[in-house]
Write a structure and sequence with these properties.
309 residues, alpha/beta, 12 helices, globular, binds N-carbamoyl-L-aspartate
């Protein structure tokens, strides 16, 4: 079985069978990760560079761990310690690195479309690790994996995506993935943080009422307010956001049903999620992080199988 694409630029470009193949392959890698010896030789002699032009904790470590578990040779690049600060363009940076014979590039960049631009100019396989406000495909894949693991399937599941939908690449990748795989999606948040065309473009439901969304859903995927991407105030204060859209224990208990709580991290405790909810038994937040390594192993393994030498 092969993926229909040589790169992972976004969920938008994937077919449902690509998503199925990645999730099923990740299940096998998760099983490998439970063994005493977690390393497999699948990517021996494959060189991967992690190019992070934007801050990251989980995603960077998760990719690096996935690469090392697959026995790839790994290079790490972060902007602050590089010649980018001397004025070099992204394409020059990447071409210099590639002339040292690198097979795959994992790219995080604050500009939407950066990995798509690179894919037009270089021959290595590219994995998008988050581009601006556009997509974060491996996050949506690990979210989908975690929903399936917790509930049995994606088909027919009701997923609420809560918070800053407008600036979130996690939201867009999740919407693409969940609608392709037959789940139902409702987005909930303040009107100023929800793009107007969502229903027409994607067939998702929109509500500005958090309790209504939680009452409806099986799973709530809760997002961080992306203050760094908002150049004008879109709500009055974080405190008021918490009152209207934060998830507290009291609110969860008032639903009189059990829902699953997810969050891609980093959590702003006391803003979108109260601590006792983030740490509570509805939360699968740390399982998401654990599953991220297996999902990224699957993506790298499948793309490496298509490398032209
Ligand atoms: C997300 C991101 O960077 O897009 N985090 C992540 O990769 N786990 C979400 C966020 O920053 O809020």
């Amino acid at each position: 079985m092969k993926l229909s694409t040589p790169h992972l630029l976004g969920i938008k470009d994937l077919l449902p069978q690509d998503i199925r193949l990645i999730i099923d392959t990740a299940k096998q890698f998760k099983e490998v990760l439970q063994r005493p010896i977690k390393k497999v030789p699948s990517l021996r002699d494959v060189t991967i560079v992690n190019l992070f032009f934007e801050n990251s904790t989980r995603t960077r470590i998760s990719f690096e761990l996935a690469e090392r578990r697959l026995s790839a040779d790994v290079l790490n690049f972060t902007t602050s310690a590089s010649s980018v600060s001397k004025g070099e363009t992204m394409l020059d940076t990447v071409n210099n690195i590639l002339s040292m014979k690198v097979d795959m590039v994992v790219l995080r960049h604050s500009a939407s479309g950066a990995p798509h631009f690179l894919a037009k100019h270089i021959s290595s396989a590219i994995v998008n690790a988050g581009d601006g406000t556009n997509e974060h495909p491996t996050q949506a894949l690990l979210d989908a994996y975690s929903i399936e693991e917790a509930t049995g399937s994606l088909q027919g599941k009701k997923i609420a995506i809560v918070g800053d939908i407008m600036h979130s690449r996690v939201a867009l990748s999740n919407i693409h993935l969940l609608t392709k795989m037959g789940a139902e999606v409702t987005v909930a948040g303040p009107p100023t943080l929800i793009p107007k065309y969502l229903t027409e473009a994607f067939g998702v439901n929109v509500t500005y009422n958090l309790k209504e969304a939680l009452q409806w859903c099986d799973v709530a995927n809760v997002l961080r307010i992306q203050l760094e991407r908002q150049n004008q105030p879109l709500f009055s204060s974080l405190r008021e956001y918490n009152i209207a859209y934060g998830i507290s224990r009291k609110l969860l208990d008032s639903l009189q049903k059990k829902i699953i709580i997810m969050h891609p991290g980093p959590i702003n405790r006391g803003v979108e999620l109260d601590s006792d909810v983030a740490n509570g038994n509805e939360s699968i937040i740390l399982q998401q992080v654990e599953n991220g390594v297996a999902v990224r192993m699957a993506v790298l393994y499948l793309l490496a199988g298509q490398l032209v030498n």
